[in-house]
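Thread: Newbie trying to understand structure tokens

Hi all, I'm a second-year student working on a class project, and my supervisor (Dr. K.) asked me to get a predicted structure for one chain before our next meeting. I've only ever worked with sequences, so writing a 3D structure as a token string is new to me. If someone could post the tokens and maybe explain what I'm looking at, I'd be very grateful. Here's the chain:
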Amino acid sequence: MRALVLAGLVTVGGCAGGAATEGRSALTTARREEQVVIGAHNEITHVSAGERLVFAASTRGVIIYDALFRGWLPPMEMDDDVRRSPSALAADPTEDAVWVARTGQVIYYRPRIDYAVTATVSGAPQEIFFDRRDLSAGAYVRVGPAFLRVSRTGSAIPVGTPPAPQDRLHPPTARDVFRQYPSLETFLPLLTRDDDLEQWQATAATLAPGRSEVWLGTRGNGLFRVDPTFNRGEHLPFGLMEPGVGALALAADGVWSAGLGSPVARSGLVFASNDLQRWRWVSGPPSRPLMGARVQALGIRDRRAWIGTTRGVLRMGLDEDNDLSRWDIADGLPSDIVTSVAPHSEGAWVGTRAGLALVEGTARAVGPRVAIHDLVLVADTLWIASAAGVLALAGPDSAPRRLAIDDARLARAIEALARSDTVLALATDAELIEIDLIARRVLPPRAANVAAVRRIERMAMDASTIWLAGEGGVLAIHRASGRSTLLPVGVSLPAPATSVALASDIAWIGTRGGLVRIRRRSDGMPS
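---
Reply by user tm_fold:
Sure, no problem. This is what the structure looks like when written as tokens:
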């Protein structure tokens, strides 16, 4: 038996030829609108359109667009094993559902009610089609020379004689598109061209039933809707450009994320609105400065992004691709490995593996040469998490100082920090320390199991909660009551957490397996 997790929905497949079992998620925290996992979906391999919904398959899963109301539905995320990426895709001809085939499985999925059934098959299906004479019979699937009929309840029955070719209803392909709209093939390079005039290869195409509309998938630039009458295309990006998230930065109405430096994927910054309806991909100048660069810190200020990477720090314009500056060890940084950034009006504080730097046109080292793990700038005070403990710096011309609090833990390595109101929260490798900055005292320890987070990477804090992100997942702590909720890896999160950012009713979590959006209750805790 195999379990398949589809963004919060768990289905269990049966044996080939037998009925599969459909199921709802056992996790109340993983309902579709309350917790959504989003992977990289810019490499489109298949496209199929129904009467209302359009489905586009990437190596990570299937994204779903409502063509009637012009909006995105939560994606159908799968595991990131490229060897099991979708091999065939077909919108159901009778209802708002999709059939997805990949090695060992055929999945029938109805996104609006979050219902899926998985049938187990042998091998990788190459084709999905339907019988025009009986559309209610389910889907026919070709695996090599053999044919199976898969029902909507999950049974997979071998078929000796499949429907005759003239009785088969196939999803329209690129060949059908260009047969119906011959001039479209000539205009393809213009239709998939982006604002920087870069052309993206079309990899899949389909016709929308009942309307003059073509859908194109590309290699690297996601999905396009095309008006074939006037040869006009509309870019509809959705999801990340890289498999994982290295760092997050809040925006007024969403979040910016940066990747882990995959050497084969298109790299850049990705904006996602809180409602997941608006996406933006920013790759920078044609030199692709983020290609292969592992991003460890991200800060946004005045429509510019400060990006801390393993190859120095970049300042990149969000509205002008050629607005790019870079600093590394040759320009005055203590180290090329940047761990944290804190933008301000004149530039940015930059933490590295070998010390702190101030970048204002040029870069200069500031303070002791110790590893900096995290930075938080509040008003004119820079709070520093370092290998030598927690430090505070009151301005560019002052020196970092220790807190005048008698607690030996504050001189140990601090991995992450955050501040809200009068409380400064610090994280060691397995401990949470809270300091009342007015009373100048360490607050009593909490009962929360901070050790479960394992190797804390980042933390976030607001008036009601503290969130810790690390190898084991994310721990959310309610400040007033002390209640805590663990979002563990493999259950609530697809992979170890690298970052966390808090909006008023949304928590964004960056993981090595994608971006996670979690709705927050009125008390700030995860739903």
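A couple of things are worth pointing out once you decode it. The first strand starts at residue 2 and ends at 6. The helical segments are 174-180, 184-191. Feel free to ask follow-ups in this thread.
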